[in-house]
Amino acid sequence: xxxxxxxxxxxxxxxxxxxxxxxxxxxRRGFLTVAATLGGATVLSACGGEESGSTATxxxxxxxxxxxxxxxxxxxxxxxxxxxxxxxxxRFTSELGPTxxxxxxxxxxxxxxxxxxxxxxxxxxxxxxxxxxxxxxIENDLLEPLNKDLIPNLEHMDENFLGRAWDPxxxxxxxxxxxxxxxxxxxxxxxxxxxxWNDFIDAAQNEASGRTSLLDDxxxxxxxxxxxxxxxxxxxxxADLQAAEDFLVNDMAPHIAAFDxxxxxxxxxxxxxxxxxxxxxxxxIGIMESxxxxxxxxxxxxxxxxxxxxxxxIAKGAPNIEAAHAFIDFVLHPDQVIDQVDYIGYHTGAADxxxxxxxxxxxxxxxxxxxxxxxxxxxxxxxxxxxxRIVDIWNRTKAAAGA
Length: 403
Prior knowledge:
403 residues, D-Maltodextrin-Binding Protein, domain 2
């Protein structure tokens, strides 16, 4: 019997009324400073003046540029790596015409740096930021408002994944996928059972020293320390931040071999490393593609970990805005959902998707869908006054590891 054939109740996130409020203490200047830190001189010069255009905050009014006119010939998507089913992309082009080009980033900070530097001329049509970054992206005029009249397949979304705190009216964003963070280890090398972030840290410094990889993402990096020590991973307390830096730079970095946001693409199948921090869907892909899947054990980070939601958004100045709307509408249709779930390994927010995935016989669904008890251990992130500090710690840790 496959895992997919076991009946399980559908699990969903709490509706936005129960979701943490997205904080906005990070000022516009601070947001651009973080982007500049990642983007260098180009971004610094680009931020010399004030942006023009919309200053809506997600609950205000903004006029969409898309009107339902003829589709352009192409769509350019800037997204996380290997994050859409090739079959779905091919069907879109076959059925509607526009060709698709993809470019990938490793972190929200990298995405934002590029959009800030471009000032509406990035050439990208669709971008896929994580939810807590969206309010600042709106405030800094990095996104176009959506014309939801052109996205009728929004009706197929589970309402629990709409109206999130960062965009209550879905004026700027629609859930693409949500997931969480944990790790994968080679149980032929690490023969003891690992169950927590403290176990991960201990193994990284012992059996997996020099063969451990971390996600190439600032919040995920510091999260390891905060989750392991019972500290809110969105802390703004300088003592907590300094303790995290001291540990990560001095104690953890010497044991890290790589910063890899997509170990499922090659590191897991090829056995490049033996301990890898990973997002759940990427871990599923890697294990399924490994010639020895039984060699790998997935662990949901404990006692606490992250809950993230990535979102379809349209970049400011998108040159193919009609085709961008058509693409978002296309991937929300039920005919595309199961291919998306199976390929990316994440819950897409579609209604009844878990039951349909079971009916379709998809494998390793315990790495895609989580119980209420597991979801209760997951924490949504926030962009706050510590954002620059988190980025600094990330850079210093990578430098100490020789990355």
